[in-house]
From TrEMBL:
Similarity annotation: Belongs to the short-chain dehydrogenases/reductases (SDR) family.
SUPFAM superfamilies, per database record: NAD(P)-binding Rossmann-fold domains
Keywords: Oxidoreductase
Record protein name field: SDR family oxidoreductase
Pfam families: adh_short_C2
Superkingdom per UniProt: Bacteria
Signal peptide location: none
Length: 256
């Protein structure tokens, strides 16, 4: 059974792998044998994740890139190719959020969030998936969505819209890349104590979240590892593509 989840010999690129959720999933991939490129705008944070991976016997390297810049992503792809020769797994986990009310929302802020959460995913898929196809590498692309992508959450208008777009990108590319043996799926996390949502977690909002979460608690970042490892494994999820997989404590099952 363990061989189903063995990622030995595989290289994973973790975009946003220096974030709370991204780093947890990247560490899980490394623990199952994948060589991991940790990519983030903040190189110091990326290097801290690498140290944690190396401490447990894994192999990783930190890289710096701006996910909203094509040139930056092209350059980091070249650097990662020089380091590993290529990649088999692309984990897209960048994220930016804001609680600005709709009528106060400026287009600079809209563009900033969209550039990271949606445009950035499109760019990474264009650049990294193209190289996978050129190298005839079958593999897995894992996009990190949100519960706000299916039913928009209050106070996070732009974030919700960006993640809804990400779901559409995921399903479109699943069809586009299937002929090349590349699977594309998205994980829909529920409420995890990540950086981008801490600032809007007031006492009242936490109470509301718990009322809508049957498991009555927040998720722990490590609880995303199993799904990420499963989707990354060519053996375990070989017939899974175009799916949006909830890891949300039952939040998506609630109505009233």
């Amino acid at each position: 059974m363990n061989s189903l989840f063995d990622l030995s010999g595989k290289t994973s690129v973790a975009i946003g792998g220096n974030s709370v959720l991204g780093s947890a999933m990247a560490k899980g991939l490394a623990e199952h044998g994948a060589k991991v490129a940790i990519v983030g705008r903040n190189l110091d944070k990326a290097q801290e994740v690498v140290k944690d991976i190396e401490h447990t016997g894994g192999v990783a390297k930190a890289f710096q890139a701006d996910v909203s810049s094509r040139d930056s992503l092209v350059n980091v792809a070249k650097e990662i190719e020089q380091w590993s020769g290529g990649w088999d797994i692309l984990l897209n986990a960048p994220g930016k959020n804001s609680s600005t009310p709709f009528f106060e929302l400026g287009m600079d802020e809209w563009d900033d969030i969209m550039d990271v959460n949606l445009k950035g995913i499109v760019l990474t898929c264009q650049i990294f998936a193209k190289k996978m196809i050129e190298q005839n590498r079958k593999g897995s692309i894992i996009n990190i969505s949100s519960v706000s992508s299916t039913t928009p959450l209050s106070k996070v208008f732009t974030y919700s819209v960006s993640k809804a777009g990400l779901n559409s990108v995921t399903q479109f590319l699943a069809r586009e890349f299937a002929a090349y043996g590349i699977r594309v799926n998205a994980i829909i996390p529920g409420f995890f104590p990540a950086e981008q949502n801490r600032k809007i977690l007031s006492k009242d909002r936490i109470e509301s979240i718990m009322k809508h979460t049957p498991m009555n608690r927040f998720g722990e970042p490590e609880e995303l590892q199993g799904t990420a490892i499963w989707l990354a494994s060519e053996q375990a999820s070989s017939f899974v593509t175009g799916t949006l997989i909830r890891v949300d404590g039952g939040f998506g099952s609630m109505t009233i």
